[in-house]
């Protein structure tokens, strides 16, 4: 296998015959150049993603993420496939790697976000939640960090989302319409065009999908413990929060749906992140 592109010292894109693969191993690309052979003896993981768009986003994401975090996410996905016996969308490699990384970073910085969907997740998705709990055990064994059960719920949601065959979801058109409306407000507010191939845009859109699903089902979640955090975020990210208030007004007028504090909090954070990243390109 020859190196086609170096992502960092531990991750490279290779061509194995006609097949493009993402290969991981500690020090795999150190002092290596494109076109050189990889040392197969130190390869730890090989990812073969059939969807080129997903593969590109995965490559972009893992550039700045520690190899340990990618490996534990892949271990969780492999376990989930075995336990569920279902085909999981390849985008799970993006969403779960990103979530594991950010969850660990938040925890190490003393930030714990409660999952107000936790009770519903336990009830409606018991198999996925059980996998989420096992995932927390895997993380604790590897990193010595005891993450709260809230994170098991978040992991379960990523699994559920990966199980969805979007072509069979009856209200996918409506979900897409809501997502388009919200992104239009953001684009108008900040006078930008999104790079739809960018991983940060993808994270934002994934969040909007969950939001649209709640909106169309008429399910809103409120957690008073998020009030203090929302007050901090709306002061720190004033422009993003102003955009969220415009979205809130539009959603209420068109759908008679009131955004909870938690929804305003997460939307503000996601909008700030995607706008901040877009401005750097």
TrEMBL record:
Which Gene Ontology molecular-function terms are recorded? Answer: RNA binding
Its keywords, alphabetically, are: Repeat
Could you say which residues form the signal peptide?
none
The GO annotation for biological process reads: regulation of DNA-templated transcription
Top-level lineage group: Bacteria
Domain PRD, residue spans:
64-169, 170-281
Q: Which InterPro entries match?
A: BglG_antiterminators, CAT_RNA-bd_dom, CAT_RNA-bd_dom_sf, PRD, PRD_sf
Task: Check the record and name the PANTHER family matching this protein.
Answer: CRYPTIC BETA-GLUCOSIDE BGL OPERON ANTITERMINATOR
- This protein is called what? PRD domain-containing protein
